Amino acid sequence: MRIIVTGGAGFIGSAVVRHLVLNKGDEVLNLDKLTYAGTETSVRAVSNREGYRFVQADVCDRAAVAQLIENFRPERIMHLAAESHVDRSITGAKDFIDTNVMGTFTMLECARQYWLTLSSKEKEAFRFLHVSTDEVYGSLGDEGLFTEQTPYDPSSPYSASKAASDHLAKAWARTYGMPVVVSNCSNNYGPYHFPEKLIPLIILNALGQKPLPVYGSGTNIRDWLYVEDHARALDIIAERGKIGETYNVGGRNERRNIDVVIRICELMDRLRPQAQPHSSLITYVTDRPGHDARYAIDANKLETELGWKAEENFDTGIEKTVRWYLENEWWWSPLRQDYSGSRLGLLSEKKASV
Ligand code: NAD
Question: Which residue out of 158, 189, 226, 247 is catalytically annotated?
């Protein structure tokens, strides 16, 4: 299959590219702008494979995107390119509106113009998968799960921009009959995760004996999914998902942030013992504004209708992740150089530039 993956030099996109090329033998065009969050080193494992191509381009650049689609003639587009870091959206929302809203609009329009030129058989087989987040649903209380019917209620500029892009994607299915499918996923973790996100930040700060910053009291709950499970889910949703529908993706692994940090400390105590336990480095910092209390996904539809199941639970996945960071300094060391290892979403400490 010929597949365009946008954002394929990022965390989840690179897992998708590696899965499609290495496990499925697909022909992949990786379209990525290479922002601070994208690096070609994340797809080093496929870079010499026949059938893999990388093009540095912006999803907002309509002429470039249209040309790439026309030349490559994809049977499927998997749209992952986005500004993805909530903290950065608080101090600089514009890039999020540009890439997540206007970029998704541009991808949908270019895909539609191309789709209109296909034969009826090709039209029917074509799929556009729009990849999104459970953060569009807002925050949960102590009980309940996000389902595909949960009303949208985003809190941050990031989740609001993703919500807007989801509505565009569904409108393109309803209005133009485009074969679009949408996925909304819980928090991912695993190899090649940019070092400013919670889990890699804690692993690398623990390794460097630096403070381990935890927002507020650390009681916010996230539902963690191992990134390679997500990559498989996205392939299955693009292949078998019903047009115009949404599929929630989650690993049924709810954890309080502080418990995630403590688990990493325990693994580090075993794998890199120090005089003091690593948990002595935990430091509570001022909470992120608008910090959602709890996210948890009901992935029943994806599991029962499309037959996907997560292979990793949190304990197996987090151990693999910690070991991966310890063994792959070549990947994260250059990315850490520009980054202090603190949390970013603190309005009081940074000048907001919206
Ligand atoms: P990431 O920040 O690691 O990677 C994003 C990639 O998109 C980078 O390679 C970047 O260079 C590229 N990009 C950014 N702006 C671009 C532009 N204008 N044109 C082309 N490329 C551009 O993000 P991620 O964590 O891999 O997330 C991928 C997708 O999955 C996003 O749409 C995100 O909203 C969604 N998602 C992420 C999570 C998560 O836990 N990380 C959970 C659910 C959904």
Answer: 158
Question: Which of 26, 27, 87, 135 is an active site residue?
Answer: 135
> Of 9, 8, 19, 11, which is closest to residue 239 (Cα–Cα)?
19
Residue 34 near ligand 1, beta carbon < 6 Å: yes
Tokens encoding 311? 């292979």
Q: What is the pLDDT of residues 311-353, one digit of tens each?
A: 999 999 999 999 999 999 999 999 988 766 665 655 444 333 3
**Ligand 1 within 6 A of 32 CB?**
yes
pLDDT digits (tens, 9 = 90+) for 77-106: 999 999 999 989 999 999 999 999 999 999
Quick one: which atom of ligand 1 is closest to the CA of 8?
9
Please name which of 181, 200, 180 lies closest in space to residue 190, comparing C-alpha atoms. Answer: 200
Q: Name residues whose C-beta falls within 8 Å of residue 236's C-beta, 6 or more positions apart in sequence.
A: 302, 306, 307, 308
> For the structural domain made of 2-194+225-253+291-312, what CATH number should be given?
3.40.50.720
64: which DSSP letter? H
Which of 26, 32, 134, 303 does the annotation list as catalytic? Answer: 134
